[in-house]
UniProtKB/TrEMBL annotation:
InterPro entries: His_Pase_superF_clade-1 (IPR013078), His_PPase_superfam (IPR029033), Mito_Ser/Thr_phosphatase (IPR051021), SixA (IPR004449). Keywords: Hydrolase. Coiled coil: none annotated. SUPFAM superfamilies: Phosphoglycerate mutase-like. GO terms for molecular function: protein histidine phosphatase activity. Pfam families: His_Phos_1. Gene3D superfamilies: Phosphoglycerate mutase-like. GO terms for cellular component: cytoplasm. This is Histidine phosphatase.
Length: 155
């Protein structure tokens, strides 16, 4: 079994013309650090895929400050308007190529984080608060998954 952690970025500044350039607020950074500490205690990631958008990159940096990983990649498929089916196919391919890595973190945005969960666990489409993490158990042999829980930051 593998663990897939789907995380929404921390709270970001207001909408602007260039959505990709939005940055985390101080609260968003605090949320990301908090969830990084929680992940380090419960599900330390070994690999991470992160959106190229600045707020997702900042979230990943905050999470990974206490969680060194063996594999890290920026993924153009996990932007807000990305195709979740394509992203999950890519993630499953990476998991099969790196079979010694058991815990994968994906840092992205609404609505694609909800669609990713639904692709992995059909019928499950949670609404993510900022910096929330969905914990999914994934069996690469059967390509079947179960949503274990959705964890929200307290800040």
């Amino acid at each position: 079994m593998k663990t897939i952690l789907i995380m929404r970025h921390g709270e970001a500044g207001p909408m602007q013309a260039n959505d990709a350039a939005r940055t985390l607020t101080s609260r968003g950074h605090t949320q990301a650090v908090e969830m990084g500490q929680w992940l380090a205690q419960h599900y330390p990631p070994q690999a991470v895929l992160v959106s190229p958008y600045i707020r997702a990159q900042q979230t990943a940096r905050a999470v990974l400050q206490n969680n060194p990983v063996s594999f890290e990649q920026t993924c153009q498929d996990i932007v807000p308007s990305g195709n979740a089916a394509v992203a999950v196919d890519y993630l499953e391919t990476l998991i099969s190529m790196h079979d010694t890595l058991d815990t994968w973190l994906v840092v992205a945005h609404m609505p694609i984080v909800s669609y990713l969960v639904d692709q992995l666990v059909p019928g499950e489409m949670p609404i993510f608060a900022t910096a929330s993490v969905a914990v999914i158990q994934y069996d690469p042999a059967t390509l079947k998954s179960d949503l274990v829980k959705l964890v929200n930051p307290t800040s």
